Amino acid sequence: MSDWNNRFTHLIRQSRPNLWGNWALAPTIQPGAVGFVDTSTGAFKLVEETVPSLAVKEKLVSSSWKLSSEGVSRQQADVKGEASVIDPHSGLSLKPEVEFVWRFQNKDSIASEFAIAKEVAVTDLGILNDQYTWLLAAAEKVGFAQNGKIAQGFGVITEVVYAKSGLNIGANDKDASYTLGGTVKGLHALLGEKGPGGSVRASYSYSRETHSLDKHVWPATEGEVASELIPVAFAFSSFEGRTVLPAWRGRVNGLSLFLDSKASKGTTYITKAKLSYSVNGKRVNEPVTTISGGLSGSFANIPVNAQELEIELVFKGVFKDVRQTLSWAVPVAQWPAGVMHIDLTGTWPGQPKATIREDLNTGI
């Protein structure tokens, strides 16, 4: 059986790298919910309903969410000969007008389409520090704490993406298909293609499938209009001891810093990199790394509890060197997935510089 939630999360992270997927549309995914993420499945396990004194903020959104694996297609076809159904909005008897058909060429492929309605986030992550003692007690109940420190994987849901309607479909077999039939307006509204708001109610009249599928459709019943929003994806903050790890994506056992002088705008400079950090109050100086133009270098196996990390970059010039320093107070909390990429650019005699690369890490 496919690991649908991890596959879903991987798809989401190609555009939203901080999020986890909620493949089965579990209602326990709520802002402030306390529990742990099973990294083998990406599923959230609830321990406590919410953090005391927590506040959230809402952002209304009217958009279409559409993700799919390679080999997935959707077609629209006119319908003839189908029996009349009752329209959930007007109560009138109507003939279905169209069918949307999803076809899955490959086994384990996914289609995810929703009418997104809002995003809700915790107002201030400082509440996790304020409520650390309470959270520690909750973590101890489920074996996610030792010696007064919370272990990675336990934490709080800090952001949720909600949808009014939509579907997650996964193919257990190749050449599978899934069909929804209904009115043109009802089906488009169901998938957010005309926006989740407005006077049109999202609904479908019937469904059918070929071969084996794993499916989660909202509303779950044909001919009904959803009365509640459902959570599609979420961000999760965990801990490394007493350190909050915002937008946690998976266990971080060590830190790595990569220096690249062969990016799209490379450098002709030779660069000397000096890295230092503190561990348990002691300053550590790593051996200097030299990166020639067009090559790359790295500092791997930096301790996860390193603090006050600083890297000094010296671009060697003919007459004068150019120096640039970058620093992070708590890198395990500031580096997504425990990794930092720095691009080195500049062609002599122009000005060289070091730039933090845009976060494109999609690993789970």
Rg calc:
25 Å
How many beta-strand elements?
A: 26
Number of domains: 2
Mean pLDDT across all amino acids: 91
**Amount of helix:** under 10%
Backbone shape: globular
What class do helices, strands and sheet pairing give? mainly beta
Provide structural commentary:
Helices cover 10% and strands 46% of the residues. It has 364 residues and is mainly β. It has two domains: 4-245, no CATH class; 255-356, Perfringolysin, domain 4 (Immunoglobulin-like, Sandwich), CATH 2.60.40. The strands form six sheets. Strands 1, 2, 3, 4, 9, 12, 15, 16 and 17 form a nine-stranded antiparallel beta sheet that branches.
Could you write a compact summary of the structure shown?
The chain has two domains: about 5-245, no CATH class; about 255-355, Immunoglobulin-like (Sandwich). Helix content is about 10%, strand content about 45%.
Topology:
Elements: H1 4-12, E1 20-21, E2 34-38, E3 43-48, E4 56-68, E5 72-78, E6 85-86, E7 93-94, E8 98-104, E9 110-122, H2 126-130, H3 132-141, E10 145-146, E11 149-150, E12 154-171, E13 176-182, H4 184-190, E14 206-210, E15 213-218, E16 230-240, E17 243-245, E18 255-260, E19 270-279, E20 282-285, E21 289-291, E22 296-302, E23 307-316, E24 322-328, H5 331-334, E25 339-345, E26 353-356
Task: Please give a handful of descriptors for the protein shown.
single chain; 364 residues; mainly beta; Immunoglobulin-like; 2 domains; nine-stranded antiparallel sheet; five-stranded antiparallel sheet; 46% strand
